Amino acid sequence: MPSIEAQAAEIVASLPVSFRQEAESLRLMGERERWTSGDQACDLIDELYPAYPKAAIHLAVALLYHCTDSTIRDRVYVCRRIPARLRALYPSITFHYWRACAQSGDPIALAEQIIAHKEAYGHLPSVNSVYGWLRNGGGGMPVWVLRMGSLLSTIDKIKNDPLLPDEIAGVIDQVGALIGGVLVHASYTRQEQLSSKHIEGGSVQAFGVLAQDLAGQEHGGQGVRVDIAQPVRSGVA
Fold first, then answer.
1. Phi-psi region for residue 81, left (φ > 0), alpha (ψ -120 to 50) or beta?
2. Rounded CA gap, 190 and 139, in Å?
3. Span 90-107, mean pLDDT?
4. Which pLDDT score is estimated for 27?
5. What pLDDT is stored for residue 136 in this prediction?
């Protein structure tokens, strides 16, 4: 049986010149290189395995891209879990974020949370933050909270419009108060849920702070007053 190295060299020699030229042209191209090399390795595995072991195929692609076989193996894993049609739905999410999503039980849900964070804060979360969400078993800020926060920011802009009729301004105030109240109520519930899981890293406190901040935003120079009952905690007078 030939060695893995010998089989990898055999695979490389059998590839069309155009295949090798594309790999060479994409070297050090970052995002394009990661996805293309992973997709190419997936295609070769589908075509050549089991005639060639996967380890030899990984190594063959690694030789073309001048990287390690473990790098290609990682890219294959991500490309299998995150097909091209899914990537196209979230063009602002890059490979490193998708690698985290690939480890999730629901990659789409995690992608939605990443995008919601961007909508709320104007930038993507750090990749480390996304891995923190995974470690915390769902401790990241829920998508609906982030999007309701964005909605409150939009309400602020509407309320500050000098052409806004007074009667509409009153309705906008009520809507803002309602949304803020929902967020405050949800923050108590969410904190208790997360605390029961013994989640660390500040997610519990961050949720409550965000909800309170959003609920207390000023709309047109007048603070929104939120009257909402706190849930009763068992054993607490």
1. alpha
2. 10
3. 94
4. 85
5. 74
If pLDDT is split at 50, 70 and 90, which confidence band does 223 have? very low
Q: Is the dihedral of CA 127, 55, 69, 60 positive or negative?
A: negative
Residue linked to tokens 């490309």:
79
85 in Cβ contact with 102 (< 8 Å): no
AA identity, residue 236: V
Cα angle 35, 122, 156 (rounded to 5 degrees) comes to: 150
**Contact assessment for residue 210 and residue 145, using Cβ atoms and an 8 Å cutoff:** yes
Q: Percentage of the chain surpassing pLDDT 70? A: 72
Tokens 């405050």 correspond to 184
The domain spans of the chain are: 4-81, 84-135, 143-223
The predicted structure's pLDDT at residue 109: 87
